[in-house]
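Dear V.,

Thank you for sending over the compound details. I've combined the ligand you provided, flavin mononucleotide, with the protein sequence from our construct and run the structure prediction for the complex. I'm sharing the raw inputs here so there's no ambiguity about protonation or stereochemistry in the SMILES, which I know was a concern on your side last time.
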Amino acid sequence: MQQAVKVVGIGGSSRPGSTAERGLRVVLAEAARLGADVSLIAGADLVMPLYDPRAASPEPRARRMLAAIAGADGVVLASPAYHGTVPGLLKNALDHIEQLRDDERPYLTGRAVGCLAVGQGWQGAVTTLATLRDVVHALRGWPTPLGVALNSATAGFTASGECDDPHIQRQLNEVAAQVVEFGEAHRALRAAAPTARAAVPTSLTALQAR
Ligand SMILES: Cc1cc2nc3c(=O)[nH]c(=O)nc-3n(C[C@H](O)[C@H](O)[C@H](O)COP(=O)(O)O)c2cc1C
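Below is the predicted structure of the protein with flavin mononucleotide bound, written out as structure tokens.
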């Protein structure tokens, strides 16, 4: 039987229980229900020194996040909108992923990444979601087809943790399903690696030769 896919959720703000963190927890709960092995980096876990390319080794919080990402088949990012974009706290944590450049799967290579952005209005939520997806592309990850923008002026979370807007709740569940499905497919692809991967450059070369 195939081992459970690993999904790490990263995000929220330094305030434990922020709206973005609550949304992130919904996605992770659904991923766990679908059989994933999930972990969470949120709140104080995000507070890391400013990323310094000269630093020889990451400090403990960055190291924990990097180990979780390196071992993950899928990632979920959740960000509040701060002045229309991803707050420095979260962007700094993501900048530490530079340390994975020489990894076997560099940066976010081969991982589906579900993105959620929360603003106190639609404009900030949507621009922040687009930025998150751009960052994922830059880190060589695969943003899931569906991303979620949540307007905290019109939606929140119940005491049991669900989103009180059923449409957003369904979207969060769908993002979880897309991350898990891609994670399982990519893991199977890696297991069949020598043949499957070798076929890609060959067909690309054939296309370029036309
Ligand atoms: C410094 C700061 C800047 C913010 N800028 C925006 C913004 O540009 N657009 C927006 O919709 N909401 C903005 N907000 C509101 C947050 O996005 C919103 O309150 C948050 O996502 C909800 O999370 P919370 O539960 O931590 O408050 C800002 C909040 C802070 C603290």
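A first observation: The chain has one domain: 6-209.

Warm regards,
I. M.
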